[in-house]
């Protein structure tokens, strides 16, 4: 590389040159953590800084524990981990964070290489992989290369010293022979390894996939799977640690040196333990405070209260006792967001987890304890044994008796990623996602438990959303912990930084304010220096700098508001923009326009600009449409879209969910899922002529002038349409409350359709696969029996099976009857008409005339 390649670029370089996996001995801790000047780790940092300086860079070294200068002065951060305070600030400013290998790669290629391939972000789990492919099909090769590069790895067309993995189907291929001949440290793996890693989104152990004798091809399914302890979960498997840890006695600077820490009263710990914790912290150089705005760390138990919200909005580190104890134990900083149980818990669980009963299988040691505590923190119940009343089984692999039983009982069988993602996103994730039901053949997934991080954006949205409308402020300036920092600055900043270099080495660097980036600096690293939204002034920046940044934010407010509005649309910001005819398109070249009243929010004020869209009337009705013939058929999609936009301009919002509709339009009385479900919510029923008339008149007409009339269907189904709405409002979606209705597995119309109808009316619908699930409602049934009517009580004693009069379905009838009788219930096997007739008239009916018997099957066959 020519001298000067790094000229006018600025680097912030961490000297933590080892992984932050839990350490098991005092000696390992000394060898893995940054120490004082003169240690081998500092020598590596100094060597790296010298390399940068020789190639035109201008390094700055910051001693461990010292404050890191404003990251806006730097174009790159170099670190082997993202666990340092400046990381979030750097991401907000679009400043790349790279590993030290990035420097060597740039030197070897004589140009600055793509920083993404050298990111220390654990989400790019292939970032240490350099793959080359042997004799494998072209399609598989392209897929593997694309997946590895997308997850932070690199591809090499030839076998070289840089290659870490050779993917091949046999150990006697040309490239495999080169690896063996030259004795290269290259792992020869089957393509299955990459496939499993990419499906899981985690990097699993390669050993079961190694050629020439891969375990996944050699061992049978009954062979026990090798277990590995998950060291990454040491100290992170519980939110409530029992004992105060004993800190390692090292010569290095304490992680708490110079920090101000607040212990929240909601910790609920005794005075003796509180004094012990304060003593350890003060011995490490920390100061205690009771004022959250002056703290650097807040230790609390729950995600609530003034202190929690204030600290979170100020980007102060918020963690629980488990996180604090880990810092004490290993004297190495990690973000409290890195591990799920290092962050305060919520008093209420994840929405949707209430009532779930989850059992664990094949997880051992710290991984099992971690998942048990995570289930409790999520608001579900963790059961030691698996029973029919369970709803989920979380298993580390698919080979166990529990897995077999769970599948027979119709339970959800998932891996721990489902639980972790649900907790991190604070939303129940669909168990049908293939990622949650994938189990590599010879891998125990307990090895990769605990790698999911919390999402700060989700936490902010749910637990400490700002009370004003100002844009989200960037993270506070970082303070280095257990790291040595090297920086290279543009020439116009060099003199000022040199003046503060000596102070920086003592831990008291001064910020030099905001300076414009030079022309040669990559555009992505200029964001911060221009004083834009994500600028982060240092802790010693003047008030004048903050005011200037605020003023600039107001200048950009219209564009920011428009972007945020467009980003929240269904489908996101799409490539190439939106069509002129698209609904909710942001119109350009309009002088006087405003945002729709119904789409404004309290914390997002409307901003009038030339690019805003034409105003629309407020929504007068939410209309569910079914069976509209003008939209039925191939080729009518464009007309349907145009009509829906026209209806919206009249104040009619077309919806697909029966729970949201106020009116339902149909050409006649139908037995579609939409129509039947809408009846349960008491929606006003109109004819589809209402839609045609509104579109022709180009105005919102009175829906009462277009009632649905279908005397023939009313006589056929034995109910009057004008009484349905009144019945539904009286039922309040509880007509089938207490009813447990099963469906045969391949019922005509689909199980999901009948399930939605039953649930819309307050009942419970399950697939019948040979066993019944009864125990989960038994206590509620017993407690409610006294207050129930006789009809409700009878329904509680009966179990219903929806079936058809076919020989295929009749095979399960004896099993259903026996299972119901064993549970002291009365079995009722009925046609689907029984359910549909009740749902359409909104009143319960007996099973007389709907029951199915074996005689009916014989009659049909004859």
Automatic annotation (TrEMBL):
Matching InterPro entries: BRCT_dom (IPR001357), BRCT_dom_sf (IPR036420), CellCycle_DNARepair_Reg (IPR053036)
Pfam families the record matches: PTCB-BRCT (PF12738), RTT107_BRCT_5 (PF16770)
Keywords attached to this entry: Signal
Organism: Penicillium salamii
Name this protein carries in UniProt: BRCT domain-containing protein
Ranges of compositional bias, category Basic and acidic residues: 491-501
CDD domains: BRCT, BRCT_BRC1_like_rpt2, BRCT_BRC1_like_rpt3, BRCT_BRC1_like_rpt5
Polar residues compositional bias, start-end: 503-513
């Amino acid at each position: 590389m020519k001298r000067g390649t790094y000229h006018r670029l600025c680097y912030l370089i961490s000297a933590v040159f080892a992984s932050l996996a839990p350490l098991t001995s005092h000696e390992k801790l000394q060898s893995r953590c940054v120490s004082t000047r003169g240690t081998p780790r500092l020598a590596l940092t100094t060597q790296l800084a010298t390399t940068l300086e020789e190639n035109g860079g201008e390094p700055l070294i910051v001693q461990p524990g010292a404050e890191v200068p404003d990251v806006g002065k730097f174009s790159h951060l170099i670190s082997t981990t993202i666990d340092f305070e400046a990381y979030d600030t750097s991401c907000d400013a679009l400043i790349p964070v790279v590993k030290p290998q990035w420097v060597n790669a740039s030197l070897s290629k004589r140009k600055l290489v793509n920083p993404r391939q050298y990111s220390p972000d654990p989400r790019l789990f292939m970032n240490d992989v350099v793959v080359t492919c042997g004799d494998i099909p072209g399609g598989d090769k392209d897929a593997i290369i694309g997946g590895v590069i997308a997850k932070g790895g690199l591809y090499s067309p030839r076998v070289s010293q840089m290659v870490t993995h050779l993917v091949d189907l046999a150990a006697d291929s040309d490239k495999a022979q080169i690896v063996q001949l030259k004795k290269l440290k290259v792992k020869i793996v089957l393509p299955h390894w990459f496939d499993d890693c990419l499906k899981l989104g985690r990097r699993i152990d390669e050993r079961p996939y190694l050629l020439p004798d891969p375990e996944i091809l050699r061992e049978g399914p009954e062979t026990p799977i090798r277990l590995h302890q998950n060291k990454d979960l040491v100290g992170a498997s519980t939110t409530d640690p029992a004992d105060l840890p004993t800190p390692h006695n090292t010569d290095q600077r304490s992680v708490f040196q110079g920090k101000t820490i607040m212990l929240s009263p909601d910790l609920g710990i005794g005075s003796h333990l509180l004094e012990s914790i304060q003593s350890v912290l003060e011995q490490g150089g920390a100061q205690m405070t009771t004022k959250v705005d002056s703290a650097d760390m807040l230790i609390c138990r729950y995600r609530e209260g003034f202190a929690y919200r204030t600290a979170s909005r100020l980007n102060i580190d918020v963690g629980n006792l488990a996180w604090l104890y880990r810092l004490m134990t290993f004297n190495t900083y990690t973000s409290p967001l890195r591990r799920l149980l290092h962050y305060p818990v919520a008093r209420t669980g994840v929405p949707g987890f209430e009532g779930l009963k989850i059992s664990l299988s094949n997880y051992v040691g710290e991984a099992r304890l971690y998942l048990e505590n995570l289930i409790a923190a999520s608001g579900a119940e963790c059961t030691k044994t698996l029973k029919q009343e369970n709803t989920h089984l979380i298993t580390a692999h698919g080979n166990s008796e529990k897995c077999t039983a769970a599948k027979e009982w119709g339970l959800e069988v998932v891996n721990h990623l489902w639980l972790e993602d649900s907790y991190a996103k604070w939303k129940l994730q669909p168990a049908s996602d293939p990622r949650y039901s994938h189990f590599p053949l010879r891998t125990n997934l307990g090895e990769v438990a605990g790698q999911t991080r919390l999402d700060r954006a989700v936490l902010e949205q749910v637990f400490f959303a700002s009370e004003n409308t100002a844009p989200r402020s960037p993270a506070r300036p970082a303070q280095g912990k257990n790291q040595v920092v090297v920086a290279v600055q543009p020439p116009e900043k060099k003199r000022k930084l040199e003046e503060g270099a000596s102070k920086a080495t003592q831990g008291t660097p001064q910020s030099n304010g905001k300076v414009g980036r030079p022309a040669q600096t990559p555009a992505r690293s200029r964001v911060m220096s221009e004083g834009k939204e994500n600028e982060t002034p240092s802790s010693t920046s003047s008030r004048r700098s903050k005011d200037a940044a605020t003023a600039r934010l107001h200048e950009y407010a219209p564009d920011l508001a428009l972007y945020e509005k467009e980003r929240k649309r269904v489908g996101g910001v799409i490539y190439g923009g939106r069509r002129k005819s698209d609904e909710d398109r942001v119109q350009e070249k309009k002088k006087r326009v405003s945002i729709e009243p119904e789409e404004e929010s309290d914390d997002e004020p409307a901003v009038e600009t030339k690019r805003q869209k034409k105003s629309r009337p407020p929504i007068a009705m939410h209309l569910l449409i079914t069976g509209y013939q003008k939209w039925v058929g191939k080729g009518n999609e464009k007309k349907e879209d145009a009509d829906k936009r026209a209806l919206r301009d009249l104040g009619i919002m077309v919806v697909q969910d029966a729970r949201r509709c106020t009116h339902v339009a149909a050409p006649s009385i139908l037995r579609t899922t939409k129509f039947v479900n809408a009846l349960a919510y008491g929606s006003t029923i109109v004819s589809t002529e209402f839609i045609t008339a509104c579109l022709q008149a180009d105005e919102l007409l009175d829906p009462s002038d277009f009632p649905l009339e279908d005397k023939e269907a009313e006589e056929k189904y034995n109910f009057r349409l004008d009484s349905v709405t009144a019945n539904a409002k009286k039922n309040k979606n509880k007509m089938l409350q207490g009813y447990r209705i099963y469906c045969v597995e391949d019922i005509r119309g689909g199980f999901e359709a009948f399930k939605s109808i039953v649930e819309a009316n307050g009942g419970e619908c399950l697939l019948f696969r040979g066993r019944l699930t009864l125990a989960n409602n038994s206590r509620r049934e017993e407690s409610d029996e006294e207050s129930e009517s006789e009809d409700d009580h009878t329904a509680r004693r009966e179990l219903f099976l929806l079936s058809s009069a076919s020989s295929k379905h009749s095979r399960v009838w004896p099993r259903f009857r026996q299972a119901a009788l064993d549970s002291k219930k009365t079995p009722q096997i009925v046609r689907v008409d029984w359910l549909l007739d009740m749902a359409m008239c909104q009143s319960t009916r007996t099973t007389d005339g709907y029951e199915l018997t074996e005689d009916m099957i014989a009659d049909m066959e004859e």
